């Protein structure tokens, strides 16, 4: 091994310059997980009291970015809604048809009713369809940029159409 | 053969004495000779982490990822199942799949935005509590009330 080191320094080769014709690759010496590395990053930067660089405020918003955060937003919203429903089921005294009749007796107009139905149907529909898009990505397909945009538009259009169809149903 | 060298000793152009480098980084550096002007044959292999790092890395994260996708696909299948075969079997399956999918999903959101060991532990405990209550509530609803499938049907009938 000493021969190897002396060889390189004698020749004056820099192994990190690809144009010298020698390719070097790093092997990962330490077995840290991604989670561990992330925690180290945050611990170090918080300890040094470093401010965070602007990111969302300066980077130009793109369609895939907006679709991604909408997927997260609808997911969190739906999850919250389900949890709220489950909690109410445990806490409220009456049964479901009773409360449904209570809501019906409020006699909201058809426009508001359709809006409410759209408000429930769209998050479900969008999250489901974009979820399928995610599963395609998980299988390794559809990562080319034009494909990302195309599948994105398909998800948006189908979400709106199925939500409108759901309003009309029944 | 893994050659452990001081990165600085090979990083600078020109001949430099080995022992005057102050920074010492012991990382495995693997070089593959591509040019013919180097007369010394270099055979080197890339070593993965397993040979240098004695402990093996847990597969928990990978299995978790796969589990998330499996539950997602199952939940997807429950849509048509609920529509065409409403009943207690689908009701309870839906309760389980919805709760688990939501639990893991919110878990990812928390991992992204919450940092610092004590905070992470706290919010994950809170999430576990919320998911437990959610599952309990949904099962209670399935048992003592109309059930999820019927509830959706009734809601939409107005």
Automatic annotation (TrEMBL), chain A:
<dbReference type="GO" id="GO:0005739">
    <property type="term" value="C:mitochondrion"/>
</dbReference>
<dbReference type="GO" id="GO:0009055">
    <property type="term" value="F:electron transfer activity"/>
</dbReference>
<comment type="pathway">
    <text>Carbohydrate metabolism; tricarboxylic acid cycle.</text>
</comment>
<dbReference type="InterPro" id="IPR014314">
    <property type="entry name" value="Succ_DH_cytb556"/>
</dbReference>
<dbReference type="InterPro" id="IPR000701">
    <property type="entry name" value="SuccDH_FuR_B_TM-su"/>
</dbReference>
<comment type="subunit">
    <text>Component of complex II composed of four subunits: the flavoprotein (FP) SDHA, iron-sulfur protein (IP) SDHB, and a cytochrome b560 composed of SDHC and SDHD.</text>
</comment>
<feature type="transmembrane region" description="Helical">
    <location>
        <begin position="108"/>
        <end position="129"/>
    </location>
</feature>
<feature type="transmembrane region" description="Helical">
    <location>
        <begin position="75"/>
        <end position="96"/>
    </location>
</feature>
<keyword id="KW-0408">Iron</keyword>
<keyword id="KW-1133">Transmembrane helix</keyword>
<dbReference type="InterPro" id="IPR034804">
    <property type="entry name" value="SQR/QFR_C/D"/>
</dbReference>
<dbReference type="GO" id="GO:0046872">
    <property type="term" value="F:metal ion binding"/>
</dbReference>
<dbReference type="InterPro" id="IPR018495">
    <property type="entry name" value="Succ_DH_cyt_bsu_CS"/>
</dbReference>
<comment type="function">
    <text>Membrane-anchoring subunit of succinate dehydrogenase (SDH) that is involved in complex II of the mitochondrial electron transport chain and is responsible for transferring electrons from succinate to ubiquinone (coenzyme Q). SDH also oxidizes malate to the non-canonical enol form of oxaloacetate, enol-oxaloacetate. Enol-oxaloacetate, which is a potent inhibitor of the succinate dehydrogenase activity, is further isomerized into keto-oxaloacetate.</text>
</comment>
<dbReference type="GO" id="GO:0006099">
    <property type="term" value="P:tricarboxylic acid cycle"/>
</dbReference>
<protein>
    <recommendedName>
        <fullName>Succinate dehydrogenase cytochrome b560 subunit, mitochondrial</fullName>
    </recommendedName>
</protein>
<keyword id="KW-0472">Membrane</keyword>
<keyword id="KW-0812">Transmembrane</keyword>
<dbReference type="Pfam" id="PF01127">
    <property type="entry name" value="Sdh_cyt"/>
</dbReference>
<keyword id="KW-0479">Metal-binding</keyword>
<keyword id="KW-0349">Heme</keyword>
<feature type="transmembrane region" description="Helical">
    <location>
        <begin position="150"/>
        <end position="169"/>
    </location>
</feature>
From TrEMBL, chain B:
<keyword id="KW-0813">Transport</keyword>
<dbReference type="GO" id="GO:0048039">
    <property type="term" value="F:ubiquinone binding"/>
</dbReference>
<keyword id="KW-0349">Heme</keyword>
<feature type="binding site">
    <location>
        <position position="113"/>
    </location>
    <ligand>
        <name>a ubiquinone</name>
    </ligand>
</feature>
<keyword id="KW-1133">Transmembrane helix</keyword>
<comment type="pathway">
    <text>Carbohydrate metabolism; tricarboxylic acid cycle.</text>
</comment>
<dbReference type="GO" id="GO:0006121">
    <property type="term" value="P:mitochondrial electron transport, succinate to ubiquinone"/>
</dbReference>
<keyword id="KW-0496">Mitochondrion</keyword>
<keyword id="KW-0812">Transmembrane</keyword>
<keyword id="KW-0249">Electron transport</keyword>
<feature type="binding site" description="axial binding residue">
    <location>
        <position position="101"/>
    </location>
    <ligand>
        <name>heme b</name>
    </ligand>
</feature>
<keyword id="KW-0408">Iron</keyword>
<protein>
    <recommendedName>
        <fullName>Succinate dehydrogenase [ubiquinone] cytochrome b small subunit</fullName>
    </recommendedName>
</protein>
<dbReference type="Pfam" id="PF05328">
    <property type="entry name" value="CybS"/>
</dbReference>
<dbReference type="GO" id="GO:0046872">
    <property type="term" value="F:metal ion binding"/>
</dbReference>
<keyword id="KW-0816">Tricarboxylic acid cycle</keyword>
<dbReference type="GO" id="GO:0005743">
    <property type="term" value="C:mitochondrial inner membrane"/>
</dbReference>
<comment type="subunit">
    <text>Component of complex II composed of four subunits: the flavoprotein (FP) SDHA, iron-sulfur protein (IP) SDHB, and a cytochrome b560 composed of SDHC and SDHD.</text>
</comment>
<comment type="function">
    <text>Membrane-anchoring subunit of succinate dehydrogenase (SDH) that is involved in complex II of the mitochondrial electron transport chain and is responsible for transferring electrons from succinate to ubiquinone (coenzyme Q). SDH also oxidizes malate to the non-canonical enol form of oxaloacetate, enol-oxaloacetate. Enol-oxaloacetate, which is a potent inhibitor of the succinate dehydrogenase activity, is further isomerized into keto-oxaloacetate.</text>
</comment>
<keyword id="KW-0999">Mitochondrion inner membrane</keyword>
<dbReference type="GO" id="GO:0006099">
    <property type="term" value="P:tricarboxylic acid cycle"/>
</dbReference>
<keyword id="KW-0479">Metal-binding</keyword>
